[in-house]
Amino acid sequence: MMDNYKITATKQRLDLLTEIEQTPEEYIPELLNFVRLFRQSLLTKQISINAWNNAINQINNSSQDQEKIKQLFESWAELDDENEQKETLKIIESLEDVSI
């Protein structure tokens, strides 16, 4: 299976080189710019996909954190121990990136 891919990729490269060789000399700079822009757009697309996936992961993790905080507050209501609540609140407030 991998050999077929290599053969296909090699043939496509040869086809591309043949097309480039058949391009009139005065159009080579434009073709070069086009190929470079195309390659850069692929890189930009991959960077965008990675950034999107990271954002989704952060949102999902944030939701999990919010759910944990909600469960903590619900357990406070059940326990109704004011001193324990104050102590836990101090711990939460000491954590970075947590706002209540």
Task: Write structural notes for this entry.
With 100 residues, this protein is mainly α. It has a domain at 65-99. Helices cover 85% and strands 0% of the residues. The chain has 3 helices and no strands. It has helices at 2-21, 28-79, 82-94.
What's the pLDDT, averaged over the residues? Answer: 82
Poorly predicted regions are none
What is the overall number of helices? 3
* Total beta-strand segments: 0
Distance between the ends: 55 Å
Give the biggest beta sheet.
none
**H/E element order:** HHH
Q: Helix fraction? A: over 70%
Fraction in beta strands: under 5%
Q: Quickly give the structural class.
A: mainly alpha
Radius of gyration based on Cα positions: 29 Å
Shape: rod-shaped
Q: Which structural traits does this protein have?
A:
100 residues; mainly alpha; rod-shaped; DH domain-containing protein
Please write out the topology.
Layout: H1 2-21, H2 28-79, H3 82-94
Domain DH: 12-100
GO molecular function: guanyl-nucleotide exchange factor activity
Protein name: DH domain-containing protein
Summarize the structure.
With 100 residues, the protein is mainly α. Helices cover 85% and strands 0% of the residues. It has helices at residues 2-21, 28-79, 82-94.
